[in-house]
Inverse folding.
């Protein structure tokens, strides 16, 4: 059970409804990340109150711990986690490669990396002498960060893992290149990813019970002909939707360009998921270019360091540890209706962070997720009213020059 | 505004109502500990849903961070933390001495120490060569664990700090001895504590605006004549209530005996607070001897290690990391109505602890606090029905021999 209805367009931006077995996702939507089967620090009720529509969890992490067999035995990832809404499983391609090849280059998805991505590879010793990841035609071999055991992922094996997990939407295994890989390696990896996608779809179709949808992943780094070729190839395979993965270049400008190269080759009537984007400016930029779903650890990662989203602040952020908040009894954002802003002051939140109370992280996560959910609601209704550019100006101009100029 | 009404008695056990400016506490009551102004990992709403009546926070910790002046400036500890119910501030006597003198002996309140108390002194290096705490007639000097700065607490100074914090019930400064202090030192420290109590009450009476109540603290270690003398002396000063502090001996049996020596000398019409008790067996034992209030970090400390209270289990505990729970879809306790048991399985809770997700600690804390709150409700109604012995047998017999035997 999976369908996607386009409800409205405003330029390339789209508002739609994605129907899954566990409910509907209104798009464009931000997808909170619950890597290990839990969105960091928050409970199911917190997510319900925030209005979270869908979460993405990671097959790689759940494979290592507690294992897909256990999760299947207890009735699947919804039953296991208690999350009853739509759920996506990422294949773990990014995790495997960012902890191996990309790690060698010290970079994440785009270079210079976003601070929030810097630690994604923290589980691996950079001094390790044996390669942590080895790719061949069949798949990829890697070492568990938990116990050093060797694991092999293949396109078919990942589909099997994701079927056992039982998410509504699953992603194929891809090879994720770094911005420092050259054109030739990026092409080689992309072609391998294409062959893997073909194999994954083949096995998915032969074993499908129609409860899950599968997304292909476009690769090709920041090279125009590769992105175009990859989009065309992956779209030609006929997936239920398309994710845009891999290196998005060395700057935001390059990232936006990658989208402009890629999206025209993806079918209009299928959802598009961008992997790993969550900055406010980026959200407007990617939605404007036709992205329907995107996930990012940013709101939870920001929460760990006492950083709160705030509309009127520089870079849309408040660092609560700043001394100017120490006797500030106002909420993080005046008028914000989240649990944190309704009940706690900046002064007290700052104290909680200073005192390293773990409640602090949850309160920050609640605010940050609520903030994005509210923004996405505004974006969806702006698209329906063809007022996205107007909304963007209202948001971005106090911080920057007119983004449409 | 402070009054205490005795509603019922069952032997020495009492059920009562303690009225404070911020609401009523039905006694006997367990008091969750919010050392730094927050009960570890849970929010205000969590406490409301659990039915927590009162919390105790620590003047010593709040003095060091963020400071009583800041808290006074923003309107007091209720306004600062958002907790609107009854609130007690501990003087910090235990913290100062357990991090100094008692630390030298490697012990907490009773010896051998409860595991949950072992870490109370973790902020101090045991290898430090200069003494961390120095007592004289005037007060006590200690080094901040945060920045190494020197601080001096006096009986008068602590009353001033606690007045600025603005709790409903405050405790005087006492010198807390260890079970390994000998009779002579214990007596010397007790006599100093008596002189401090007299000074504290004097300054409290001269500056009181009738919004706060003050509790004296009985000392005297595990020595009968000292406990009796201390109870008589402190009771003679005429406090609003009485706390029983200091060393409670080297075994649970000695702890119960300390209560039997002390309580007969305390006035019947005032509340009695036992500092630092939270084990299920102990709760029955101390309530039976006439204790009205007691606080302990046990439920939150247990939560940090994946330990949940459970009625039918050995020592009333489940260690969720045990492999036998790995695909157990039941809640921690069948029939338990707490948020955790209504929404999460043992299998998933185990996974959260294995994966070191901080949500785990909150879910465990919620269950443990709910469990104690429910027990206390049962104890209060059993006292009113003169059925406390019956309730005790129902709880304890599956685990142990008849405690009344």
């Amino acid at each position: 059970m999976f369908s996607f209805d386009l409800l409205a367009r405003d330029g390339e931006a789209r508002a739609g409804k994605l129907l899954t077995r566990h409910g509907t996702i209104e798009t464009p939507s931000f997808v909170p990340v619950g890597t290990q089967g839990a969105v960091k620090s928050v409970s199911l009720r917190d997510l319900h109150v925030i209005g979270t529509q869908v979460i993405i969890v990671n097959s790689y992490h759940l494979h290592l711990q507690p294992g897909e067999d256990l999760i299947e035995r207890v009735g699947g990832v919804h039953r296991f986690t208690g999350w009853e809404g739509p759920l996506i499983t990422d294949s773990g391609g990014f995790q495997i490669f960012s902890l191996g090849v990309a790690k060698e280059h010290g970079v994440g998805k785009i270079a210079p990396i976003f601070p929030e991505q810097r630690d994604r590879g923290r589980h691996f010793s950079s001094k390790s002498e044996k390669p942590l990841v080895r790719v061949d035609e069949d798949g990829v071999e890697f070492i568990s960060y938990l116990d050093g055991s060797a694991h092999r992922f293949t396109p078919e094996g990942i589909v099997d893992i994701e079927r056992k997990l039982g998410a509504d939407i699953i992603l194929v295994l891809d090879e994720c290149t770094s911005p420092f890989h050259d054109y030739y390696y990026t092409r080689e990896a992309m072609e391998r990813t294409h062959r893997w996608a073909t194999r994954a779809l083949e096995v998915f179709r032969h074993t499908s019970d129609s409860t899950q949808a599968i997304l292909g992943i476009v690769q090709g780094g920041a090279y125009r002909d590769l992105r175009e070729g990859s989009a065309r190839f992956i779209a030609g395979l006929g997936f239920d939707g398309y994710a845009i993965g891999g290196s998005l270049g060395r700057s935001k400008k390059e990232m936006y360009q990658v989208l402009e190269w890629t999206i025209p080759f993806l079918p209009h009537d299928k959802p598009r998921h961008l992997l790993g984007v969550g900055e406010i400016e980026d959200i407007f930029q990617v939605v404007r270019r036709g992205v329907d779903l995107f996930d990012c650890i940013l709101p939870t990662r920001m929460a760990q360091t006492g950083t709160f989203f705030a509309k009127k602040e520089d870079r849309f952020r408040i660092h609560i540890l700043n001394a100017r908040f120490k006797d500030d009894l106002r909420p993080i954002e005046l008028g914000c209706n989240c649990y944190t802003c309704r009940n706690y002051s900046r002064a007290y939140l700052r104290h909680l962070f200073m005192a390293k109370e773990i409640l602090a992280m949850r309160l920050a996560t609640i605010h940050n997720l609520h903030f994005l959910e509210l923004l996405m609601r505004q974006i969806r209704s702006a698209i329906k009213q063809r007022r996205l550019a107007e909304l963007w100006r209202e948001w971005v101009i106090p911080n920057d020059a007119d983004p449409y100029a």
